[in-house]
Amino acid sequence: MIIRIVKDEGPITGEQIAERLNLTRATLRPDLAILTMSGFLDARPRVGYFYSGKTGNQLLGEHIRKLTVKDYKSVPVVCQEETSVYDAICTMFLEDVGTLFVVKEGGFLVGVISRKDLLKSSMGNQDLQTIPVGVIMTRMPNIVTCRLQESLLDAAGKLIYNQVDSLPVVKEGSGRDQLEIVGRITKTTITKAFVELGEGSSV
């Protein structure tokens, strides 16, 4: 009702809106604040309220584009190149993750191991305790990464386009071509973000 009044009569003051609805300005103030913060209305001092012209989908899209990797990243589960395939399988199981990130001293990313990599290596009669993960991992620079300041939407696009379950979140190291791993973004991360958005919009 408030949006319709502003759409039809804007610019219009809060007092005028309250008058149309037979309410006090104080009663209406929280609703106007929510509609303005949500982006449905624009407010200008000494002028009044305007209809922004944006739909709920447009506002949701704008909000999604503002979500950053930095705010949603989780702790990466890592191992060393010398770690055996057997120990990597145990780590993946115990940590309940689908991807392990391989690092060298200083936390610099050198490789990635997926469930599929471990499954392939376990086929046959090989001794998994003697095979290091460095033999089966995907190496840099063939690893898709994301940065802290990157949008969560862009990270989701990388997950889908590259058909991977997880992305390492990295920042530049001190040396040439060194990337320090500082987090991870997974398909679960993206799902969690959308659930939070949905719960927030229903409040």
Topology (SSEs and partners):
Blueprint: H1 2-9, H2 14-20, H3 25-38, E1 41-44, E2 48-51, H4 56-66, H5 69-72, E3 78-80, H6 85-95, E4 99-104, E5 108-114, H7 115-122, E6 138-139, E7 146-147, H8 152-161, E8 166-172, E9 179-186, H9 187-201
Parallel strand pairs: 3-4, 7-8
Antiparallel strand pairs: 1-2, 4-5, 5-6, 8-9
Helix pairs in contact: 2-3, 6-7
| Average predicted local confidence, pLDDT | 82
Largest sheet: spatial strand order: 3-4-5-6
Oligomer, anyone?
single chain
Which runs of at least 5 residues are low in confidence (pLDDT < 50)? none
Shape: elongated
The proportion of residues in beta strands is: 15-25%
CATH class of the largest domain: Alpha Beta
User: What is the H level of CATH, i.e. the homologous superfamily of the largest domain?
Assistant: CBS-domain
Order of helices and strands: HHHEEHHEHEEHEEHEEH
User: What CATH architecture label of the largest domain applies?
Assistant: Roll
Domain CBS: 72-128, 137-203
Protein name: CBS domain-containing protein
Keywords: CBS domain
What does this structure look like?
The radius of gyration is 25 Å and the shape is elongated. It starts with a helix and ends with a helix. The chain has 2 domains: 56 residues, Winged helix-like DNA-binding domain superfamily/Winged helix DNA-binding domain (Arc Repressor Mutant, subunit A); 126 residues, CBS-domain, CATH 3.10.580. The strands form 3 sheets. The chain has a 4-stranded mixed β-sheet with strand order 3-4-5-6. The protein has 9 helices and 9 strands. By secondary structure, it is of the alpha/beta class. The model has no long low-confidence stretch (mean pLDDT 82). InterPro entries: CBS_dom, CBS_dom_sf, Diverse_CBS-Domain, HTH_11, UCP026546_HTH-CBS, WH-like_DNA-bd_sf, WH_DNA-bd_sf. Keywords: CBS domain. This is CBS domain-containing protein.
